[in-house]
Design brief:
By secondary structure, this protein is mostly helical. Helices cover 73% and strands 2% of the residues. A two-stranded antiparallel ribbon has the order 1-2.
């Protein structure tokens, strides 16, 4: 699919990103070439935004769950004993792969419970991050502590957003906004956005976007 002026305007691309795209002659390129040029120029958030706008809702959910699997390594590094997010994500993957053993209502209960927990972890981690930043002292470990809290906060929120996508499916497998808070596409976008913060590693960012490109081919 070509990324046209109309596509960007209809989807309300931000002015600064549109300006960059226009000045670098990306308008009317096919989506894969368009996204690869964004990656070449380290514009990962823009690439993520374009991908999410191209997805259907099931692709958005799969994208988010793929991201959560990557972020699990960061989460489990901070919480090595807590295997709940991995269990939730494996259950969601089973559902997406049409497992007859998994009931949608059951998976929603599991998923929403962990979604709520992950948001609490995010808030606690971010509070610790801010407290550490504003606690003025000569401590060589301050920078490492800030990094620890920020990564933990970002990882938890990325997983929460990924898990939230499954909560937005209704009992008839329609992808509705069940909780009227945030839709599937926003959740998928934020799952990647906060994963980028959790890793701060360009290789991982490119891997996430390439996984999204693969989903568009299916």
């Amino acid at each position: 699919m070509k990324i046209t002026n109309k596509f960007l305007h209809d989807n309300r691309a931000c002015k600064s990103s549109y300006k960059w795209v226009y000045e670098n002659n990306l308008i009317d390129l096919e989506h894969e070439e368009f996204i690869n040029k964004l990656l070449f120029n380290n514009r990962y958030d823009d690439a993520n935004w374009i991908l999410v706008k191209l997805f259907n809702k099931k692709q958005a959910i799969r994208y988010a769950i793929n991201i959560a699997e990557l972020v699990l390594d960061v989460f489990e590094d901070k919480f090595p004993i807590d295997k709940r997010p991995r269990e939730v994500i494996e259950t969601i993957k089973g559902y997406l792969n049409n497992s007859n053993d998994i009931n949608l209502i059951d998976i929603k209960n599991i998923s929403y419970n962990f979604y709520s927990l992950a948001l609490k972890i995010n808030k606690l981690a971010y509070a610790s991050y801010l407290a550490n930043i504003y606690n003025i002292k000569d401590d060589e470990d301050d920078e490492d502590n800030n990094k620890f809290y920020y990564e933990k906060s970002s990882a938890a929120y990325s997983i929460a957003m990924a898990i939230n996508t499954i909560n937005l499916i209704d009992e008839n497998n329609n992808y509705n906004n069940r909780f009227n808070v945030i839709d599937i596409f926003d959740s998928a976008y934020k799952a990647a956005y906060y994963a980028f913060s959790a890793f701060n590693d360009n290789y991982i960012k490119i891997k996430i976007i390439n996984k999204g490109l693969e989903l568009l081919k299916k």
